[in-house]
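Give me the 3D structure for DUF4331 domain-containing protein.
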Amino acid sequence: MKTILNIKNIVAVLMISGLAFNCSNDDDMNTVIPTPTEQDFTGIYAQQDQMGRPAVNTVFVSSSAKDMFNVTPPSQQGAAFQSMFQDNLMGLSPAFANPGDMNALGLDAATFTGLLATDVLSLSLDGETTFFNPNSGALLTGRALADDVITVELILIFGGEEGLTNPEYPTLSNDNVDANDKPFSASFPYLASAW
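Predicted structure for DUF4331 domain-containing protein (195 residues):
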């Protein structure tokens, strides 16, 4: 429930931001930018949630460890949570049931969960921004709105060594949601128009 609410909050902020950019035809460049003395950043701030890659926290963090994971800095997550991620992967996916099993990236369970346990969304500054592009082979270099991230994650979890072309568990390797229900916009903020 917490994850769903956080995603709804993010979507709401993005939608409101989009409206704020589109509500005015005032382009006379009289923008007021607050000076540092006008900004108040005093107070105590605490991280409440962590979700760099979609579904990673939801699937691989055990219920009893959610709060701890959410407040752990990404630089410490791998050491603290990789073994939990691996145990949960091994219990979840028959594609990793045997010693030496790998996924479509050629990663065994320990290496794959080591990558996932540091829950950050990587970003390529000089290449393609995508969660996965089968045509170029780019992987985890960012995320475009149209990227089918859940299917990519399902392939890497359940697809086995040939998951991209011949998944071991095809019914578990695709969410069968192949496109957004409305086209994305070609201009900022790029989200689809409201229904």
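Residues 53-172 form one domain. Let me know if you want a second pass.
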